[in-house]
Amino acid sequence: MSVFLIDRATPLPADEAWRRLTDWPAHGRGVPLTRITVLTPGPTRTGTRFTARTGLGRAGFDDPMEVVHWQPPAPGVPGRCRLEKRGRAVTGWAEIRVRDEAAGAPRGARVCWEEDLRFAALPRALDPLTARAGRLVFGRAVDRLLRG
Questions:
Q1: If you write DSSP's letter for every residue of 24-65 in order, what string do you get?
Q2: Distance CA 35, CA 15 (A)
Q3: Burial class of residue 96 (count of CB atoms within 10 Å of its CB; 0-12, 13-18, 19+)
Q4: Tens of pLDDT along the chain (148 residues)?
Q5: What is the pLDDT of residue 105?
Q6: Residue 71 and residue 95 in contact, taking contact as beta carbons nearer than 8 Å
Q7: Radius of gyration for the alpha carbons in the chain, expressed in angstroms and rounded
Q8: pTM for this one?
């Protein structure tokens, strides 16, 4: 399987971490050679669709996604966003979870980004390599998004 998990603690409050992680165009600034186009009017909600285009010029691929679950964090309630990948070249899903740290802990939030990333052109035997590359690329993107 090509499932990977990114787990981060941040000093940001949960609502600010959520805002940064669900700013879809900002993801394009954190993932090399990628630009995000939001296809539905805001604000983000279940049914929001966007496409990540990765590549140079005509050489590249599209990764269309749809938000299938949208629950922003609220006091005592963690946030959860689930994306389904709807493309031919890239399939799978991603889930973003954000929660305030437990009472008594330092101010801040815990962020978990879990993803099942599959490239149609790659054999399943390369899933561990895909997961490792995904953890590296998306881990750096999460870090950049949380730093602002």
A1: HHHHHHHSTTEEEEE-S-SS--TT-EEEEEEEETTEEEEEEE
A2: 24
A3: buried
A4: 689 999 999 999 999 999 999 999 999 887 888 999 999 999 999 999 999 999 988 889 999 999 999 999 998 899 999 999 999 999 999 999 999 986 555 679 999 999 999 999 999 999 999 999 999 999 999 999 999 8
A5: 56
A6: no
A7: 15
A8: 0.91
- Residue 3 burial class via C-beta count within 10 angstroms: exposed 0-12, middle 13-18, buried 19 and up: middle
Question: Rounded to whole angstroms, how far apart are CA atoms 83 and 47?
Answer: 10
Scored b (16 or more CB within 10 A) or e, 57-89 reads eeeeebbbbbbeebebbeeeebbbbbbebebee
For residue 46, give the amino acid letter.
T
H-run or E-run covering 94: strand 90-100
Residue of 53, 52, 110, 113 whose CA lies nearest to 82: 113
Is the sign of the CA dihedral 130, 135, 136, 141 positive or negative? positive
Closest CA to 46 of 95, 87, 81, 19: 81
Place of tokens 């389904």: 84
Burial 106-126 (b: 16+ CB within 10 A, else e): eebbbbbbebbbbbeeeeeee
